[in-house]
């Protein structure tokens, strides 16, 4: 068949088939990841960290995202292409629409926004106008200065309740997919069970419908301390393609994330 669609992703979720997602920022890696069976090529604004050496994702622009999305789309064949809306690009529904159009024209099949219930009207505005949206709750790195650091979220009962409310509000507004980042594995499992749409976890435990990692993290080439939820798949692999296949295999089998990668 052709390119994976949202219906295809929802079908995988319905069949209990895990979804393997990796970040991807260029055409060469897009071709490699696609050929290794990665389901979703995600043009994350983490490119601000791993490509541009910024300490946060805040400096990333819509033109950066459009350029990398276009490169990924050209290198890809069958994977689903998801692109991040960068910091400051979705403060209002109309801003979000105009910037999402730029990413869709670059080749994205869906855009991702970071935040909770406050984004419901924006999600509805986009979805109504034919732009599929992925939510992103838990640790939302664009809010790092509000959160006071890159910290695990949903640790208290109040915070967990708020995350459940955010997840429900975003689903009601029409998200087709939900990224859940850096929450206790028990909360990740609860959120995954409470939603009809597929959940993609990063530091959210093994119960999510799929997993995502930053490409450079899973290849062991990211600077700085390794985050708890990261596994270096180059260890024990003879090639980059081998590492990517090992990641896809581990996600599909449910052997990644293991206990040691969970909060
Ligand atoms: O930009 C990014 O890499 C992300 C993570 C969820 C993988 O948003
Ligand atoms: Na991101």
TrEMBL record:
One of its GO terms (biological process) is methylation. It is an enzyme of class 2 (transferase). The keyword NADP does not apply. Coiled coil: none annotated. SUPFAM superfamilies: Phosphoenolpyruvate/pyruvate domain (SSF51621). The active site is at residue 181. It catalyses: (6R)-5,10-methylene-5,6,7,8-tetrahydrofolate + 3-methyl-2-oxobutanoate + H2O = 2-dehydropantoate + (6S)-5,6,7,8-tetrahydrofolate. GO terms for molecular function: 3-methyl-2-oxobutanoate hydroxymethyltransferase activity; magnesium ion binding; methyltransferase activity. Binds 1 Mg(2+) ion per subunit. Belongs to the PanB family. This is 3-methyl-2-oxobutanoate hydroxymethyltransferase. The gene is panB.
């Amino acid at each position: 068949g052709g390119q994976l669609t949202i219906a295809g992703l929802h079908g995988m979720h319905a069949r209990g088939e895990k979804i393997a997602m990796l970040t991807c920022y260029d055409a060469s890696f897009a071709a490699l990841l696609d050929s290794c069976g990665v389901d979703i090529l995600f043009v994350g604004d983490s490119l601000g960290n791993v490509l541009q050496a910024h300490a946060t994702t805040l400096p990333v622009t819509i033109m950066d995202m459009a350029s990398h999305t276009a490169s990924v789309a050209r290198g890809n064949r069958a994977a689903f292409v998801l692109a991040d809306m960068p910091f400051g690009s979705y403060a209002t529904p109309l801003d979000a629409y105009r910037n999402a159009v730029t990413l869709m024209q670059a080749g994205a099949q869906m855009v991702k926004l970071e935040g909770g219930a406050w984004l419901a009207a924006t999600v509805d505005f986009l979805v109504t106008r034919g732009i599929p949206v992925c939510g992103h709750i838990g640790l939302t790195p664009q809010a790092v200065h509000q959160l006071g650091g890159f910290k695990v979220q949903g640790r208290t009962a109040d915070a967990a309740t708020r995350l459940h409310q955010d997840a429900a509000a975003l689903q009601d507004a029409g998200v087709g997919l939900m990224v859940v980042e850096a929450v206790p594995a028990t909360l990740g499992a609860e959120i995954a069970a409470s939603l009809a749409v597929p959940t993609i976890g990063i530091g959210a435990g093994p119960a999510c419908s799929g997993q995502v990692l930053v490409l450079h993290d899973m290849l062991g080439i990211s600077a700085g301390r390794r985050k708890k939820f990261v596994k270096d798949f180059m260890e024990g692999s003879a090639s980059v393609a081998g590492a990517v296949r090992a990641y896809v295999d581990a996600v599909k089998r449910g052997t990644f994330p293991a206990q040691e990668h969970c909060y």
